[in-house]
Amino acid sequence: MFEIVTLDNGLRVALEEMDFVRSISLGIWVKNGSRNENPASSGISHFIEHMLFKGTDSRTAKQIADDMDRIGGHINAFTSKEYTCYYTRLLDTHFDFAIDVLSDMFFRSKFDDKEIVKERNVILEEIDMYEDTPEELVNDVTQYHVWPDNSLGQSILGTESTISKFDHGFFTRYFNANYLPERTVITIVGHFDRNETLKKIEERFTAFQKPLAPPSPVSAATFKKCIATKEKQIEQTHMCITFPGIPAGDKRTYDLITFNNMFGGGMSSRLFQSIREERGLAYTVYSFPVSYSDTGIFSIYAALNATQVDEVLHLMFNEISKLQSDAITEAQLNKTKEQLKTNLILGLESTTNRMSSLGRSQLLLGETLTEDEIAKKIDAVSLDSIRELTNHLFDMDKVSFAAVGSFGDKDFSALMKKAAGV
Questions:
Q1: pTM of the model
Q2: Is 49 a catalytic residue?
Q3: What is the CATH number of the domain that holds 90?
Q4: CA gap 224, 203 in Å, rounded
Q5: Domain boundary, last residue among 205, 236, 269
Q6: H/E/C letters for each residue in 92-154?
Q7: 210 domain-assigned
Q8: Cα 145 vs. chain centroid, distance in angstroms?
Q9: Mind listing the pLDDT tens digit for each residue in 64-80?
Q10: Active-site residue, selected from the candidate residues 16, 49, 82, 115
């Protein structure tokens, strides 16, 4: 059972003891991501994530890597639209050392200008890598155009223009204004002594204080219908049709997860069977929801030959319309529920997965459900609640389209109108 302890400075510590393992997974979660940026600072959150590994007052970048390798620990980080996470997994005997390294990185990173220049080149390579990954790129194109006037639509990586302007002062100001104790959660899952662990956290994080002025709140994101394309000289067309979704923590979350699994979430799903297995029109086709704190999207993705876009779009919309005439059955629903509950329980047997689940839920929602509570919510999904969700989800007045590939003068607007019947 997990426990949430709030320190005097507002920092939350989420602990879950697992006495039957010998490992510990530790994460520092900060509610700051690309959504907290403006056009001039686009990419700074992700750049800060990189720079925390580039040297502190007492350790060089190589020493950070060597120190963790010496104890056999794994250390990494990632940045999302709404948060950044620094995490490690190691044996319980090395916890003191790991928290020392992480807190050193967190509070005493140097943001050295020479290291900034070197790491900028690394991030430019990362941007190029994403440009060469059309499955990722089409999602960025989608979000940029459905939220064109909001930071939620910005790339997490930033642009060459923005990241070229960041220096030591820029990093320091942004870090101090946005890395705040009340917006941070430390999660610890595994084998540890509760009182000793809390004492060590307090010793290292008690100096984490609030700034004089609170950071600016993020602005609400409003979905905008779009037809968006990006030309690239590649063999396939990568496309998404996208609808407004639901935010994280919405009461329909488990209806959405359950429906997505049946509709396009796996090899037995309707989309996969119709488009790939029965007709062989695409190697990859699936649906997926994306949820943020106040909004979300639901997308259907396929990678295929440009000559087959018309037929596949027709089949995608046909599967949506068939939800009325060929409704999901009770047997299909029950099978999916059992599958989801099994995946949930198996996934949470990992200390890293438990630590991640605990961190995200506490940071974004301020609450964490137990496995039994989640299972009850899955069991509560009904055919009626699925029907209500899909009626809300598939709003043809707002359906949007994005594609990446080499498709010449193909009129996607006309194809969408024809396929969707609008």
A1: 0.95
A2: yes
A3: 3.30.830.10
A4: 48
A5: 205
A6: HHHHHHHHHHHHHHHHHECCCHHHHHHHHHHHHHHHHHHHCCHHHHHHHHHHHHHCCCCHHHC
A7: no
A8: 18
A9: 999 999 999 999 999 99
A10: 49
